[in-house]
Q: What sequence folds into this?
């Protein structure tokens, strides 16, 4: 990735500004009140967490993003996966491409991902939280066939697989606890969302952003919203994540907080909550001197989920703003677009919005 190939160059209106606005106000939330609670079901019995639930509700409503500390994820598990990821990406390209993903095996290594049809300045390794993960065989609504996605693991470093699997267990627990708190903040029972994740299609990504000679032209990841339910992101101390502030549309840099996680609401929560909470656009800047690593976990429901506004949150005064859509068909369509530069825009939730 020497000189910047034109495939990486953003349109002028989407190019990054090199002056950074540090994030004032992206909430930093202390989760210690729930660490002593074993399950989401018992969360709702505790009055002590009322304040926490209110904080999470405000963060989801005002920002769509927040950071959490005292989150209960074991630090050694996070350090292990970070070390293994650095070792994996330090290998020669030929080695990494042995587990390159393609249209048949959709997880593994990849270095030519596009966001909004412009190439991202990054390389990734994806793995599924649940193996195998069951999904539709094609995006065709008439096709009822299912297929299994399975993980590809590299030979080196040999410790990568165990590090990934252990970490996945930890971060999944955190994601589901957060879904319990989000449910409570919407006035729903803490376990309201649990059944959707029984056969989850969640996956975790290891990101590596090499130094970029022209950080004013390219982006690590172009502007986008996350299509799933919730994203739980570990980033290193280099930073680079920017969030579009809802009040004025300004891009705000999320300053790394040691050992914190950055959480953002995905499109599915926007639909489930009937837009009480919104999924917010974000992007990743690159750095001309330093490489950057990050690990997002994308919490996604079972493929057979029909995503639609929850009945408890809709009524005559507040009718459903979205038509139901199949999550499995949605992701199958999205995955295909990773391998082809499409002439049309990728599938988005606003394609299902009910006209007002």
A:
């Amino acid at each position: 990735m020497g000189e910047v190939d034109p495939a990486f160059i953003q349109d002028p209106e989407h190019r990054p500004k090199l002056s950074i606005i540090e994030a004032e106000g992206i909430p930093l939330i202390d989760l210690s009140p729930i660490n002593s609670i074993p399950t989401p079901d018992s969360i709702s019995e505790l009055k002590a967490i009322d304040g926490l639930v209110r904080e999470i509700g405000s963060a989801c409503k005002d920002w769509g993003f927040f950071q959490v500390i005292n989150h209960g994820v074991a630090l050694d598990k996070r350090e292990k996966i970070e070390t293994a990821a650095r070792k994996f990406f330090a290998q020669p390209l030929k080695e990494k491409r042995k587990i390159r993903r393609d249209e048949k095996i959709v997880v593994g290594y990849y270095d030519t991902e596009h966001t909004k049809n412009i190439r991202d300045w990054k390389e990734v390794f994806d793995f599924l939280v649940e193996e195998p993960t069951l999904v539709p065989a094609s995006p065709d609504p008439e096709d009822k066939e299912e297929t299994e996605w399975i993980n590809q693991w590299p030979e080196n470093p040999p410790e990568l697989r165990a590090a990934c699997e252990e970490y996945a267990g930890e971060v999944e627990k955190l994601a589901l606890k957060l879904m319990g708190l989000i449910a409570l903040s919407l006035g729903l029972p803490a376990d309201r969302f649990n059944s959707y994740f029984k056969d989850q299609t969640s996956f975790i990504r290891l990101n590596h952003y090499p130094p970029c000679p022209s950080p004013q032209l390219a982006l690590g990841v172009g502007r986008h919203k996350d299509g799933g339910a919730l994203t739980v992101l570990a980033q290193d101390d280099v930073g680079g994540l920017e969030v579009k502030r809802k009040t004025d549309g300004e891009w705000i840099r999320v300053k790394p907080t040691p050992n914190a996680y950055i959480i953002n609401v995905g499109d599915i929560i926007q639909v489930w909550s009937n837009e009480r909470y919104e999924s917010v656009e974000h992007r990743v800047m690159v750095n001309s001197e330093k490489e950057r690593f990050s690990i997002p976990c994308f919490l996604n429901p079972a493929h057979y989920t029909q995503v639609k506004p929850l009945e408890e949150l809709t009524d005559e005064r507040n009718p459903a703003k979205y038509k139901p859509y199949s999550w499995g068909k949605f992701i199958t369509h999205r995955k295909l677009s990773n391998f082809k530069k499409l002439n049309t825009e990728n599938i988005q939730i606003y394609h299902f919005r009910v006209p007002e």
